[in-house]
Amino acid sequence: MPGLSLSDATLKAVQAHGEGATASEVLNYLSTEFRMTVRPNHLGMALQRHRRAGPLENRNQRWYVLPSA
Fold it and tell me: Could you please report the per-residue DSSP string of 41-68?
């Protein structure tokens, strides 16, 4: 997808894993689906931004999309 930001791609990657996704699974998804090469620390920052903003949560080392309120 041309012009897709790391932040948007990260959210889409977690959404694609209904059972939650590890950071490694998100990295693999970004690589295979979006042809994005992402440094692990940049992915970590994107995941944490989404966690602070509310759409993601981290439980047992897995990332989940929170249901809309």
Answer: HHHHHHHHHHHHHSSEEEETTEEEEPPP
